[in-house]
Amino acid sequence: MQRCGALWALGTVYRYARRVYGRALCSATWPQGKVDRFGGVSVRLLPSEHREEASFKSWLRGKYAVRRWKEEGRTAVWLHIPITLSGLITYAAMEGFHFHHAENDTSTLTLWLKEGPSRLPGFATHQVGVAGAVLDEDTGRVLVVQDKNKTLNAWKFPGGLSDPGEDIGATAVREVLEETGIKSEFKSLLSIRQQHNHPGAFGKSDMYIICRLKPLSYSINFCPHECLKCEWMDLQELAYTSHTTPITSRIAKLLFYGYKEGFHNIDLPVKTLPAVYSGLFYSLYHKELPAFYEAKTDLQ
Amino acid sequence: MQRCGALWALGTVYRYARRVYGRALCSATWPQGKVDRFGGVSVRLLPSEHREEASFKSWLRGKYAVRRWKEEGRTAVWLHIPITLSGLITYAAMEGFHFHHAENDTSTLTLWLKEGPSRLPGFATHQVGVAGAVLDEDTGRVLVVQDKNKTLNAWKFPGGLSDPGEDIGATAVREVLEETGIKSEFKSLLSIRQQHNHPGAFGKSDMYIICRLKPLSYSINFCPHECLKCEWMDLQELAYTSHTTPITSRIAKLLFYGYKEGFHNIDLPVKTLPAVYSGLFYSLYHKELPAFYEAKTDLQ
């Protein structure tokens, strides 16, 4: 009886230890996940750990991952996986995960846990391109280029894609300098174009913004890799020539209108304001607000 | 001698066959890649094929993949991998590939083959949010909401993120309807805000656009999941109250100016134009171009 009792006790201890150890093993090997303010769980895997695919698979299928988060009423799971552990993605896909986005050395997958279609926010949907209309007000001439390797040799304003984190005006000034050698400064935003399913944007949308710039230098030194031609062209000529794109023609007409009757008619100047929550700053563009309307704030 | 010669011949045939078969095996198992107009090679793997990781690894390291494309002077490699074959990504990373982007069930990796830093275009950099300032011109009242779950109970215009492929005006109208139950139509674009490292945009940039809308219905039926309050507020009161965000206050002042002195002072109406190459259409926003300046085209 004693030996039997000891054996029973041993068995109990063993089973208990296995359960505790098993849980500890799971929580040690695979992170618990952090709950965000929208009720989602975020799990960030580290390149130096979490290497075993079989263990990942059983953890994700087991009771300490998706099943538990569902029981806890979480809305979704975000899984951040370093590129070197990409073998794990296949197993996440088997559990219903999809790519949310990926960049450089990390991919992010999501799984929506609630009823109905996912209400998670998507990733960035637009690329932003900026062109600069550099107008020499003394001569009425504007800086134009013809792109290399195009079937149509149309005059257009120099410009290109924004770098990540780059302000609209900064892109215009940089692209003008890179393409034409002309230094300039930002004056205003003139126009925005939105185009979807853009061939050059991996099927995403394209936001193309044209700015009015003021030249700070005048001697052209254009980039032969990007441009076929570059010159200072009479603005009125550009506005009414057929050797240009429809958008360049239209903005040249608008700029000509501003040149003749005052830029306040066409300009959206920029104002920098502090963001409420983040402490960062943002750039706001709109028609000039007359002092009278702005100043009324002070009365209150 | 004869037997020796036969053996030699057999050996030659065998080595030749192995070379031909080996090459055929490689080209049959792993796609050759398509060359794009920028000199890059694009390789699209299929979920139904290309399953063997060891074979992928030796193909990518061997002389029929990266090494050959380098010899051929290609600029870069684009690798499109279905999510079920994500195990292959790890081997691509070992050869220097990085994620360009990923979405739903596919990831795209790139490897720059030329000297210096990659000159490949990046993926989308901005999310786009749109708010609608719905002004009832008869009463001078504007539709405002207070968001649920915010620390500051500030009045603001209803709005939200654009769906993929959705026009700016369409987002404004949809979001206003979803949040407040008010039907409206797009009149003009009023303002653009650009903000980088946006906390709600996965570190990407945020473009926030405010539109002027005209109400088509007046009876509020707001969404209790999104809004705490919703009402028609006197525009002048909104413009000069402190119970609002800096951007709402500023755009309310601008809208008040337009209401008092004519919307032509503040509006960027939309025009739809055909794209030169794709045959698709795009939306262009800028200050109204007077007929005189537009009409001059006809003279040429």
From TrEMBL, chains A, B:
| Function, in words | May contribute to the regulation of cell proliferation.
Q: List GO molecular-function terms, semicolon-separated.
A: ADP-ribose diphosphatase activity; NAD binding; NADH pyrophosphatase activity
User: What is this protein's record name?
Assistant: Nucleoside diphosphate-linked moiety X motif 6
Record-linked InterPro entries: NUDIX_hydrolase-like_dom_sf (IPR015797), Nudix_hydrolase6-like (IPR003293), NUDIX_hydrolase_CS (IPR020084), NUDIX_hydrolase_dom (IPR000086), Pre-Nudix (IPR040618)
Nucleotide-binding among the record's keywords? no
Q: How does it assemble?
A: Monomer and homodimer.
Q: What is its EC number?
A: 3.6.1.-
Q: What coarse category fits the chief subcellular location reported for this protein?
A: cytoplasm
Q: Specify the species.
A: Pyxicephalus adspersus (African bullfrog)
Family (UniProt): Belongs to the Nudix hydrolase family.
Task: Give the superkingdom in one word.
Answer: Eukaryota
Give me the Gene Ontology terms describing cellular component.
mitochondrion; nucleus
Q: Name one Pfam family in it.
A: Nudix_hydro
Q: Where in the cell is it found?
A: Cytoplasm; Nucleus; Mitochondrion
Q: Which UniProt keywords apply?
A: Cytoplasm, Hydrolase, Mitochondrion, Nucleus
Which part of the chain is the Nudix hydrolase domain?
A: 125-257
